[in-house]
Amino acid sequence: MRLNFFVNDAPVSLEVDPQRRLLDILREDLELTGTKEGCSEGECGACTVIMDGLAVHACLTLAAQLQGRHVTTIEGLEKNGELDILQRCFVEEIAIQCGFCTTGMIMSAKALLLHNPNPTEEEIRTALSGNLCRCSGYVQIVNAVSRAARELGGEV
Amino acid sequence: MKLVGTEQPIHDARSKATGRLRYTCDIVQPRQAHLAMVFSSIPHGYVVSVDATKALELSGVYGVFHYYNTPEYRFNHYRTQFQAAQDLPPEECVFQRYVRFVGDRVAAVAAKDPETARRAAALVKVEYQQLPYATDFDEALTGKHCLDGQAPIEDECNITVGQPRPDEAEGIEVTVHNELSRLHHAAMEPHACVADYDPDTDELTIQSPNQAVFGIRTVVADMLHMPYNRVRVIKAPMGGSFGGKQEWMLEPVCAVVAKELKRPVKLVYDRAASMRSTYCRCAMRGDVRGVFRKDGTLLRLDLDILLDAGAYIGNSRDYIRAPFGKMFRCYRVPYGTLHGRVVSTNTTPSGAFRSWGVAEYYVMVEHMLNKAAAALNMDPVELRLKNVLLPGESDIKMKLPVEETRTRECLLQGRDHFHWEEKRKADTEFNASNHRYKRGTAVACGGHTNTYYTRFNDFAGVEARMCDDGTVQANVSIHDHGCGSVQAFKMILADALELPIDLIRMGEADTAHTPYDYGCFSSRSTFVVGRAVQCCGENLRREIIKSAALMLDVPEEELYIKDASVRRKGYEDVALPYKDISQWTILNRRQELFADARHHNVTNPTVTGAHFAHVEVDTWTGLTKVLDYLAVHDVGQAINPAMCIAQTQGAIQMGCGAALREQFTFAPDGRSVSSLAKYHLMNAPDLPDIQVELIQDGRSQEGPFGAKSIGEVGMVPVAAAVAGAVNQALDADLQVIPMDPDRIVEYLTKREAAKCD
Amino acid sequence: MSTCYIPNTLDELGGALGHLTKDSLILAGGTDLVLKIRSKYLYPDILLSLSDIPELREIRITPEQAVIGSMSTMHQVELALDGLEDLQALADAAGGVGSPQIRNKATIGGNVANASPAADTPSVLWALNAQVDIMGPGGVRRSVPIQQFFADGKTVLSLGEVILSFTIDRTALTGWRSAFVKLGHRSQVTISRIGMAMALRQDASGVIQDARVVVGAIKPIPFPLPAAEDILRGNLPDPCLAEALGATFRGNTRRAYKEAAAKGVFEDVLLRFQKN
Questions:
Q1: Does B724 reside within a domain?
Q2: How far is B624 from chain C (nearest CA, A)?
Q3: Residues B654 and B590 grouped into a single domain
Q4: pLDDT at position C1, please?
Q5: Looking at residue B379, which CATH number applies to its domain?
């Protein structure tokens, strides 16, 4: 099929098998390797991207579902060499260890803050419930998201 | 100390946050062949034939490699050193003819893209001749799966340490039994490897997330009869390991296929293969006996352990023995015995896992201590205070001083900050008035090591050189798991040279460029390699001063370093920047500014922690919530305290999973769980705000700045504390770990029924 | 490569359905199908994606009925129905499926059509007497009560049929409140081991006049539990009924764990009725 959609606001046109996974389109066809494959079955969240404003698993999304959609990946967060506030907070709050869960975690957090700019700790943990981290106990990750929310809200 | 002791993000945090860091799965090599594996679908038997016809018909398939069309390459996946240092038999082949578990390697398919390789692998037809198999201890002990000449018990040991106490016979005896399930490491990055072979220079290059590049080099070079200096192994960024990436499953395959195809290859395991076809933490059965004086003094500790090695013995002979030594590093054990037996089963082999058996042994020992506290009518914290080793004492097995140990302080501080007494009192009241939910607390301690010594002589080498602009490059064989070793060592070097950290470049292990090193095991990185970095920094500093003294024609004693320049005492205006000194050295001393350090340690202080867990068990559904958790660790000096804390919280997440729900199980047909949908980790909603505190006045003699280890010891007390808290909540003596909802409900149902009888 | 149909209207859908063969696959949210495609190496002759038909994503709520498009995601169902007392159980069930990422793609139609015994929405739809609105080849429509939709862990959908929507008669639910609770392996992001849908009609003093209890994840298809309904009628929805209610699981499951744990689920669902 001829797939026409948007990745990080840029139009993309590809001839692909309708059952090709978005994850493979991103990582192989578009060479955007920031989105990771951790489990291939929608359990770990490492492949989380934002599609039309919502966090979804790229490993469970097929080309046939992408026509005209807007997909944002981790590569789309940085603007003009400036890290997105979430990226900066993850770095500064020591929320990154091995880093394999990081990009998916940031995308889930980004999706949360798009809809809920002032989340409670419980809401953050629920928003990240589908993103597994094996290196940490999630404490710094939650702190990073909280801090990003506060900074975005104008408080410091 | 300017940087050491401060909070720093991991060295490549920005690359990870942007997604630009290239893990092995992200590497793209021109012309690369993607590999997909064919794994055994039977638990035990022979591969009679491999029919690749249909697979080869797919367009873009370069080849299918198996036992019958490749030389028989034999190796031992546990090997990390040469044979003289590690006497191990070559247990397996790269492609097996004799398969020993569902998931054993049968063939590799090479194709132009991953999907073609995957599809082609599914089309390979394998004919098997099946043999009887065993998947658990009881089956293994019958020997039904043994070939001629094999016995069910693969290895047996009896070890005794210390002397029996004269009053042992009057002591109070406490015994416990425990069964621990297998675990999956569940690093978020599945296993991966790339390799390339240059037929013109006969050179092989392998890149993977691994904990021992020199070990892989030894194994692969020996297997392929290649000189070691033509096998280059590079440690790639690692998305977690926890012990799961220190034994070799993918590298031998990639090496063989790269050599056969004479093109770059890439093999990325999916989660199912990482779970099933690499290795796991062993299943263990144990009986622990303690003998105490009435006042709580431990007189004797006996352990009887049965370990399931799985399909290959691998590290199991070492794994059953090594944790016994850690029994003498936390508590004062005057007399201890270990009777250990290793069986094999037709299941995923067991191998290295964070703490290397010590977490498992402490689950059992702490269980025994909790039972002893009840029998002796002593508070559990008091019982441990009575028995922990104090500064000035020795690890009587290693025959080394424990040095400045702070286990006692960890317990006292933890008891206070956790509000131990108040929680226990509140729980008693809560439980009395609550029919469905029951709460409990428990304490657990654990001890571990900082180095291979005294098991082997341990050492590390580091080189550092200054560029002609004053920046520094260091060659160190680091195998950072994502735990912050590179950043910690950069901080150490930066402090030694009083240089801003961003002027230091430090890569990781690469057999072509960095010094020989055993690898990242035994929690030795900071204590041994980090110390070598510190020494190297001091040596380079001396070279800088030496050059500066020559430049100024003054004695070295008059010079000191401040702000990346050399100053002269009493002369405010004299300031030689490093850049100038570096360039002068090249032009005048006819060498670059260079230093190395060869460090070996002769100590191994104990390193311990005390953990406190508070849980709430839903006695109707069996689900357990971790309400509160505090870990207090004696770390000597935290190089990067924020990372020490984050690491320990991760260990706590892992140990909670081990105690409450993680079990890597096998069905009667020999097929394992192979999905995270069925292997449940602790997720964000499951965990409380885990507290970790570091005690930093118990400095080690030989660690950099007095540092001790943290990576493995953090794991040791966790499952013990959580399991103890569940037993406390239920007033029970549950023995099987994990204490999952089914087991809790089964136990309570039986207990209820027994009451009615 | 498979042929791909991505209809944009119901008419186009009707046309596409006529082309489907037994080797074709219908793609709703994909959270179940993609796993199947990969694990079984499926290569359908036709892949029909329902993702671009706006009518299938509509949720129309009036005082008389709720019509929920089959392609409504779990997240959309939760948002639309949360707070509507009679339909709360469906919001509860949808809001507890998988993780946030799953809820943003998994659809209520896919959940029902896949008919996994552990699916969460079927038992709720059953308790709320939903109708399943179906379209077949050429656009032919039919409607089946949910109670007749499942058979032996499969569904009555024949080749070329898809679910268009679920219609719930709200006038019949006047005075009713509903709730759903699931018991899994952990508190969030888990498959259900027990799924419990409960609907109660209470009088002014809170006494239960009528009750519906439908259980999922125990048998291949949801099953009503009249014995539990009998215990509830005439009582207040008090958690103290939990143990008696739990006992009604006896004989309905071979799993000793589920039989024992049932009272926990009953108490939790009763507690939801206490909140108001």
A1: yes
A2: 9
A3: no
A4: 76
A5: 3.30.365.10
